[in-house]
C-alpha cells in the first residue's frame, strides 16, 4: 500500500497528516536536529526544510531554549511544510506525562514516549490532547518499542506490550519507534526508524547505523531518521536532497507491486 492509501486507515490525525505529507513532498525523511546552537539549527532548517517531512528535536539540548524559540520553529515548519516531533522520550506516571506533553504540544505536533508506566501514561496523553489550546490540530505520540543503540534493555515482551498499547490507543498513537516491521497488519500507523546513515557502522557511544535502503526494505521503516549524515555535512542541503532521493526510491521499490511514485533523481 502507498502512504496515501494507508492514510485512510489512520485513526490518529497526526499519523494521517504525516502519511499524506510524505506523498505530497515525495519524501520519507525525518531530520534529527541534534546541533549545539539554535543559530545552527535555524540555518540547517532553512537549507533542508524542502526535503524533510518531520523535524525531530531535543529542545532541552539548547541552552537558550525559550517559548520564543518554539514560535520560531513553528513558523519555519509552516514555511517549509514539515511537522515537528519532540524526541523527549517521556516516561512517567500519567499526571506528569499530562503536564509534559501539554507543554510540548504548545509548539510541536508530536512527541516520543516510553510505555514503562503502562496505560496511565497514555491516559495522561489523552488528557493533554483534550486540554490543548487548539484541540483541532493534529497531535500524537510515537511509542518507543525498539531502540537502535547497542545493548539496550528493551525486551521482546516489552516490545510486544508496547505494540498492543499502540493498537489500544490508536486515536492517540501516531506510530512506533522501531527497528522491525511490528505493525504490518495495522497500516494506519507510522514506523519511525532511527539509526540511519549513508554507510553502515556505528559511533563510539553504542549507536548502530544501517543504510537508507536497508532501513526501508529490511527494517520496514516508513519515516526514516537521519541526523549527523545531514547536520554535520559540509553541504546539508545537498546531503538532505540525496538522502531524500535514496529513501524515496527505496519506498517506491517497496510498493512497486502496486501504485507507486516514480523514483527521484533531482
Automatic annotation (TrEMBL):
The active site is at residues 87, 89, 92. Its EC number is 4.1.1.23. Keywords: Decarboxylase, Lyase, Pyrimidine biosynthesis. GO terms for biological process: 'de novo' pyrimidine nucleobase biosynthetic process; 'de novo' UMP biosynthetic process. Pathway: Pyrimidine metabolism; UMP biosynthesis via de novo pathway; UMP from orotate: step 2/2. GO terms for molecular function: orotate phosphoribosyltransferase activity; orotidine-5'-phosphate decarboxylase activity. The keyword Lyase applies. InterPro entries: Aldolase_TIM, OMPdecase, OMPdeCOase_dom, RibuloseP-bd_barrel. SUPFAM superfamilies: Ribulose-phoshate binding barrel (SSF51366). It is an enzyme of class 4 (lyase). The keyword Cell membrane does not apply. Substrate binds at residues 34, 56, 148, 207, 227-228. CDD domains: OMP_decarboxylase_like (cd04725). This is orotidine-5'-phosphate decarboxylase.
